[in-house]
Amino acid sequence: MGFLDREREALATALPGLDDKLVHCGLTALEQPVNPGLGLFSDAGGPGLLVPAEHGGTGASAVDAVRCTRAIGARSPSLAIAATMHNFSVASLVALAERSDGCEWMLIDAVANDRLLMSSAFAEGRSGQNILRPAMRADRRGDAWLVSGSKKPCSLSRSMDLLTMSVALDGDALGIAVIPAKQPGIAVRPFWNGLVLTGAESDEVVLTDVEVPDELMVRPDGADDELQVIGMIWFSLLVGASYLGAASALAARMIEERRGSPDTRAEVCWSLDTAMFALERVAAQLDRGEHDLASALSARYGTQQVISRVTPTAVEALGGMAFIGSPEVAYLAAATHAVAFHPPSRTSLAGAFDTYFAGGALCLG
Questions:
Q1: pLDDT per residue as tens digits for the range 244-259
Q2: Burial of 270 (0-12, 13-18, 19+ CB in 10 A)
Q3: Transmembrane ranges (predicted)?
Q4: Verdict on whether the full-model pTM lies above 0.85
């Protein structure tokens, strides 16, 4: 089996035709601020990837979701990041629905059957923050809630159908708001000025007294900690796989073009696959109902270090003419650096892991 074959087979099974269409578009077109990637993802059934089959979705396992994400990342890092934010939101909502008697399954049905895209406003762009810690408050107003604040960056800011976020309710209880993107009071402002990953639509979303009906304000009711752990695990796996895909795109070019020595090609590929094995191991645990956050974060940070180590090797092996002749090599290399910027950062948890590996509990603060 060749490099990335397992991942591309998983994508072809889960979302038929998507990979071929992404190849036809090409990396440069897919990475533009306005691009066809999210439309192709939606048309292929991407919004329902993690929705159980009985609710109209694909019902992909965590292992297959990680493989699909790596395959997408190798075609378009921007699309992989946007899809990660959607899938992380859906997975969190599914986990909540399994622990609740509310209307969550109705929302999940709609996501799959109407192919709705969900953006994630769970974390501000501060790399040391717990991604599910509420950054906004919701104030009760009659039978509804009013939410104000902003999220930046917020992927899928222009293509989202639903906006999901954690909010602090009365008494600092956790609530998860699911807000239609066309709800009055929601505005999108330019924010992302970088040259890479612009296709993920990561601009600022501003909420001004946005009314959220009580039925769309989901309360975990005692399952806060468990849901935060599950959400963090999903996020760690998918974001790690996204950037692993970007680095793998460089490795795939080495293989296809026979650039570098056999030793170099083999080392780059087996290093990236070793990182993938770590992500798949945690995903398999998740599929069994095991929620090991320490392993998930370790796999993500280990993947980050592998990416940082092998990407320069791959760029050097591809050679100066490849770097000069096409912007894509430099683009992919630059995109991989963003793996370090998603919360919680590796450095912010170094002390917590030092305590954990010495036999203590892993405390995210």
A1: 999 999 999 999 999 9
A2: middle
A3: 229-252
A4: yes
